[in-house]
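Ticket #4471: structure export looks truncated?
Reporter: QA, pipeline team
Priority: medium

Steps to reproduce: submit the single chain below to the structure queue and open the exported record.
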Amino acid sequence: MAKPRTKKHRRGNREGSISQRADGRWQGRVSLGDGRRKAVYGKTREAVAADVAKLLVEVNSGVTVPSGKLTVESWLLGWLDSVKGTVKPRTWQRYKQLLTAHAIPAIGRLSLTRLTPERLERLYQEKVATGLSPRTVHHLHVVIGTALQKALKRRKVAQNAARLADPPRVGKFKPRALTADECKAFLGAAAGDRYEALYYLAIYTGARLGELLALSWDHVDLDEGTIEITGTLQRHTDEDETGARLVVEDTKTERSARTIRLAPAALEMLQTHRVRQLEEKLEAGKAWTPSGLVFTTEIGTPVDQPNVRRRSFWPILAKIGLAKKITTTETQRRRGKDVKVKRTTLKPLVRFHDLRHSTAMMLLKDGEPVSIVSALLGHARTSTTTDIYGHVLDGLTGSAAGRMQDLLGGDKPKRAVRSQLVSKMVSHRRR
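Actual output as written to the record:
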């Protein structure tokens, strides 16, 4: 008969116990001192003993042990609420879309403390398999990691599982830029378009579409031939996603706010656009809504970026063979009958943002210093420019080698000197 445990043999508060379960696994339990007990499991007694020892150190040092009741969904949604107002609305909408569409449906029901790096890696693999681009999945990984880092800081989890997980490999981005001839053809095809001046500014200045649509006449000096980039026009979706509005936000970075001197061709086109807009204002009459913006609709209101792309940019690309026409057949219900209707859409081979890349690459290939191109584009750091256009700079090292030859050597080494070098190399090999 087993002897009853005496006071001397009983485990004290915040001490752990280890036992083997009926299924063969080992279990360790630790009292947290607040009425709760924490359990850990493992295949071997040694592994469980190590986990118990680590847990005891945390408990005895006063570290709050995470509770298993908090789910991944609850934490991610709470984190979204906490960062709202600290980031740009468009950025917050992107966070929300990534988490609610991809993360929460897959791992939302898991206990936050049971989220492992392996589970996250499986999530990433599943998303790539369904067609989500590796770059988007990597962005999802970054957002999850940021949310979990706050959970770690608040001691809701013992580790940041995302920091230990491997996201899908993302290839280095190489922009598809238009050549100088393609840019000329594009501007020729845009002749007479309402946004012809927009395209001239985009190519001649490298400004982003949102920056140009936010440009106001107050920041244009036609006499000096300069424009000031002070903001970016973005779509803000209402919290219930039932409506949207266009709002001028601050520029992407502080350095993105910049003054750009216009080339004569771009300045002339902007002056022509000013006259065209005044004519539209007279024609609209009372329907005109004064916004002060350079590029507007026919009644003076701000222009949404997708409208510029679909109604103007893509058709111009199609004229020069940079957009494909795709015809699809869909079934529509008309007068009680199913009718097949052919619909033609355009698939662009380049993006509007590629006009910006075209500007940068043409200038760099022509020998413009990286620092000047970086300032023109409004990059936060010169390293950003070199990271994006490094492949262009690599191709320019040959000219640098030629310049060094001209500076230091001039002519090629004399034949006598070259023959001596060859003789020394041969004798050295024979030894």
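Status: closed, not a bug. The export was complete when the record was re-opened. Leaving a note from the reviewer for reference: The longest strand covers residues 323-334.
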